[in-house]
Amino acid sequence: MIPNVLASAGNLLSSLWPDSEPVRQHAVIQKLIAYIDQDDVTALTALLTDSDERARILAALPDADRSPLHYAAEHGKYKALEVCVDNLPFEVWNLRTRDTGRTPLMLAMENNHDAILPMLKCRLTAWLDSLEHLSVDEASDALIDMKIVYDCDFERQDALDTLWHMVVNARDHEGNTPMLLAMKNKHYECCKALLFRGADVDIRNDHDESARLLALDLPAGEGVRYLLYRAPTV
Fold first, then answer.
1. pLDDT band at residue 19, thresholds of 50, 70 and 90?
2. What is the pLDDT, as a whole number, of residue 150?
3. What digits encode the pLDDT tens for the residues 157-210?
4. What is the dihedral of CA 221, 224, 228, 234, to 10 degrees?
């Protein structure tokens, strides 16, 4: 209900001040939220493949307190997420909430939605493959932009491993990683999915907790206890 109301409000504002770019950005973000909430793949695809609307979305996303991507990840809107992953640049998956500093992946793991993991890994791989079709200068600029967004350095040949490490081991304002958030919320299937995709079980948050240490508190018969305790050091 709320996303529909917001979308209507955005359309009204846009009609009152049609030449205002901030208003247009606001309106398209409300559309994005509404389509995500409805898991409306057709409308969402049309929106994200419209070059003008997509440009407005990308311009507005960094200013959103909690972006539509966070909403989709938090609520497990898998069909919508798949469209977003396919049609938005990989940099947007490092967007942070202002209050907690959490990425969309963190919210997904916190709420037991692990299907986003293979989507993101495939998207990163596809993005790197797309560089082969760019000129040397264009590919170099694209890599530089990604280094800035994820605050890391890497060579072309190890870009996949380095960037994926930054995504899957990102830390919020309290030092929690996606793995720690999944572990603290007892979403053990998410923990397994993260572990099998390179998550570090030894990163400690500001409370000196790590996934490996938390695993020791689980009952002896809990499978994830053995997996995390015996996990290799990253």
1. low
2. 94
3. 899 999 999 999 999 999 999 999 999 999 999 999 999 999 999 999 999 999
4. 160
- Domain 64-229 fold is 1.25.40
Residue 221 reports pLDDT greater than 80 = no
The position carrying tokens 């490092």 is 94
CA 186 to chain centre: 21
In eight-state DSSP terms, residue 201 is S
Cβ 14 vs Cβ 24: under 8 Å: yes
Amino acid making up residue 151: D
| Mean pLDDT on 25-48 | 95
Residue 143: how many CA atoms within 13 Å on its side-chain side?
21
Query: What's the angle, vertex CA 68, arms to CA 100 and CA 73, rounded to 5?
Result: 70
Could you tell me which residues come within 8 angstroms of residue 182 by beta carbon, excluding any fewer than 6 positions away? 109, 110, 112, 188, 190, 191, 194
Which residue type is seen at 120? L
**CA of 64: how far to CAs of 29, 67, 88, in Å?**
9, 5, 16
User: What is the rounded end-to-end Cα distance, in angstroms, of the chain?
Assistant: 44
The pLDDT, as a whole number, for residue 68 is 94
124-129 contact pairs (CB < 8 A, 24+): 124/90, 124/160, 124/163, 124/164, 124/167, 125/160, 127/89, 127/90, 128/159, 128/160
Q: Is the pLDDT of residue 16 over 80?
A: no
What single-letter amino acid sits at 228?
Answer: L
**Domain residue spans in the chain?**
64-229
Alpha-helix runs per DSSP H in 75-209: 78-87, 104-110, 116-130, 136-150, 159-168, 178-184, 188-196
